[in-house]
Amino acid sequence: MTAGRDARDAGTSAKDSARDPVHGAAGGAPGRAAGGSPGAGAPHRTGFACFVGRPNVGKSTLMNALVGTKVAITSEKPQTTRRVIRGIVHRPDSQLIIVDTPGLHRPRTLLGERLDSLVLSTLTEVDVIGFCVPANERIGKGDRFIAEKVSAIRETPVVAVVTKCDLASKKEIAEQLLAVSRLADFEDIVPVSAQTNEQLDVLTDVLVKHLPEGPPLYLDGELTDEPEQVLVGELIREAALEGVRDELPHSIAVVVDEMHPRPGREDLLDIYAVMFVERPSQKAIVIGQKGERLKQVGTKARKQIEALLGTRVYLDLHVKVAKDWQRDPKQLRRLGFFD
Ligand SMILES: Nc1nc2c(ncn2[C@@H]2O[C@H](COP(=O)(O)OP(=O)(O)OP(=O)(O)O)[C@@H](O)[C@H]2O)c(=O)[nH]1
Q: Is the CB of 251 under 6 A from ligand 1?
């Protein structure tokens, strides 16, 4: 099977693909979600997909690349994603709504437990699951744990996605595809790179195959239904995560209190946000000497927010301590993590 083939050729049934589940090797034609010309009389499909995998395997980056814009934040720190975010891929033949989840992992805190139950309930509700494994790392216990969990969900088909293929040689990719095929009985296995856009169109084709027939749920051009306030908070958190180490990334939460155009200045949006950390020592780190670090974080976040919203932004960012918020149900609710 060649990579980057036409969408219409991809219409193999789940049964066919079970016999030959591997979709090409990376190195095929690049392109993002470009397929999707509906064949004559082919029904329109609409549905939900969800990517799961160990932290840091590239789930959020993949969703952004498929959707074509930055709707989920990414970082080199594991467990960056905390919220369920939807990105929408529009094609003539289909609408693929991607639900981004936090990685499944063994819960260590109350926050961890809540995230895991959130993930499991999401998985039974979507139409297809994308189980992600990076091409450039050996399959480990964590991957096996998640592969077992998702293949136990009988009602949802699982497609394996070998990510970050730009970081592996052809031989390594081939070996990884084989290793992944031994993990569980996947419907399909697709090697991709979100960095170079390789095989993203093929992945979309494969996911769309599993969606039910139905009309579009979102208007053309809508890329996400996350409230802007949430996206803005996530961009601030992403800027704050850069350059911090150890436990600190997990201790940072951001709440956007207010967001409105400045009276008499329709071209300027005022945003008031608070960054929460768990301890005073962390507050000092986040703020930095003479407030330097916080200033950099604010500038970086502001630029990203301006790019997202297409307007000039004034960002008022404060840091507060919410003691041990990850373990405290009341604080968790306040920061938007509901049970
Ligand atoms: N070279 C390369 N790097 C990638 C690719 N996809 C993701 N990355 C990088 O891998 C890191 C983790 O990516 P994320 O998308 O945040 O991973 P995630 O699985 O969503 O992580 P969690 O939110 O922790 O679950 C980031 O530094 C990305 O830039 C890819 O296709 N190629």
A: no
